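In response to reviewer comment 3 from the previous cycle, which asked for concrete evidence that the modeling workflow produces usable outputs, we include below a single protein chain processed end to end. The sequence was submitted unchanged, and the resulting structure tokens are shown without manual editing.
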Amino acid sequence: MNSFFKIAERNSTVGNELVGGLTTFLAMAYIVAVNPPLLEAAGIPYQAALTATCLGAAAMTAVMGLVANRPIALASGMGINAIIPFTLCMGEHAVDWRVAMAVVFVEGIVILVLVLCGLRTAVMDAIPASLRHAIAIGIGLFVAFIGLQGSGLVVSNESTLLALGDVHSPTVLVALFSILCAVVLQVLRVKGALLISIVLATLVGIPLGVTSLPTQWSAGLDFSAFAAPFQTIPGTDTMAIVQIALQPALLLFVFSFLMSDFFDTMGTVVAVAEQGDFADKDGNVKDIQPILTVDSAAAAAGGFFGASSITVFVESTAGAVAGARTGLSNIVVAILFVACAFLAPVIGMVSASATCGALVVVGYLMLSGVANVDWSKIEFAFPAFVTILGIPMTYSITNGIGFGFISYCVIKVFQGKAREVRPLMWVAAAAFLVMFILG
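The workflow returned the following structure tokens.
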């Protein structure tokens, strides 16, 4: 085990990997509660959606650990899983959920081809170092914002868009307790600090009514969503994937999903790499090719499983901060997701309030990259600024990266330094521009 995962070589221990894996899982376990209802709205039976979500995440997280040997967990991505029911399956030109999964499957195949051709890695190499660091910083703020929003510490407001939540509510009190625990344990350098804060906050939430005790302990499996793109659409004799050729408008969704997966992954991998010690001072990720290959295959696998697009999870940064350095932590996450398929009600006890502290501390730690941005030159500083601001403000890693890419190219043009921009940066900026125009 030590030689296969290179545990000692990366200055880790089996204990660190176990704690890191458990921390990552608890930080991202909300997907088990969130994804199935969204897919159910698209027409997938709830139990089938739950089975697909858990087993899809388990399979691709394990593959990432075994192939890339990095502590990057995967599951159904937020964003695309909402577009599937509310735009593809319930919009003006609604399609069957099997067709929606075929769109995801095709997008995954396309992005896998781009990775195998070296394009995805080449785009990452073309990004200036300051922008790479800015992406990680923006994701840090995003992670912290997710924790604050999910716990009710930050709420929507008609007048100001955002406001402080009710500090007297039980959910906010548990969130504040989780932040206090996470910070204090970090100060005391307690091993497994983030994991301990999640567990303690979950226990404190029981008498306050925030931690929901399960009414049942297990659930059955339903594989009816598997191989969705190759299932026949009810009432027809047409395979779902064939509809993409019959309805060219669906190719716009393929492009949209591709942009989201392409750049969300790029940002997340850089963020996890900086916390997991496999990125250099310029934000270049070591052994990036196998990571991107597995992530691309995961997108296609998500469509095949019927789980929406499976992608790397930014909450993996929590595990990296907790000490995870190898793919062994992924095996821990994968085992827990398999258990989730049977014990989802138990995992549901961990609330967003309980994980708030861990996510806020991770966000704080990721801001250290601010010192690596060249703030003395506007061609690097302003794109970095709009990237950092755009990711949390638009609730989208892709949007923030797009703002940064476009502004970098525009500034270079007006400086008379357009030739300094690498060709693939122009291509990526143009693709973002098309995406924003098409909406």
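The longest strand covers residues 154-157. We consider this sufficient to address the reviewer's concern, and the full set will be provided in the supplementary archive.
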